[in-house]
Amino acid sequence: MPIWCPDCSAMLVEGTEECARCGARLEGSDPDEGFNRSDIAWFNAYTFAIIAIPIIIGVGIGLLCLLLFLS
């Protein structure tokens, strides 16, 4: 008998511990088991932002200096 994800309403196979679509933990699974997919996706997004924002700012300052130097 199929079960349904409480977060995204995806149909899942009985006995699964987390939703394959959204990564939500289903009732009865241990919440302290470790990271799930949604935790890792947020970690990757934060890591990308921490690395990308200073690079973008540096490139912008470099282009501004180049424009001022050439004029």
Kindly describe this structure.
There is one protein chain. The protein is mainly α and 71 residues long. The protein folds into two domains: 1-34, no CATH class; 37-71. It is built from one helix and two strands. It has one helix at 37-70; strands at 3-4, 11-12. The protein has a two-stranded antiparallel ribbon. The radius of gyration is 22 Å and the shape is rod-shaped.
Shape: rod-shaped
- Quaternary arrangement of the chains shown? single chain
Structural class: mainly alpha
- Largest sheet, order of strands side by side? 1-2
Give the tally of structural domains: 2
**If you compute it from the alpha carbons, what radius of gyration comes out, rounded to the nearest whole angstrom?**
22 Å
List keywords for this structure.
1 helix, mainly alpha, two-stranded antiparallel sheet
Quick description:
With 71 residues, this protein is mostly helical.
Explain the layout of strands and helices.
Blueprint: E1 3-4, E2 11-12, H1 37-70
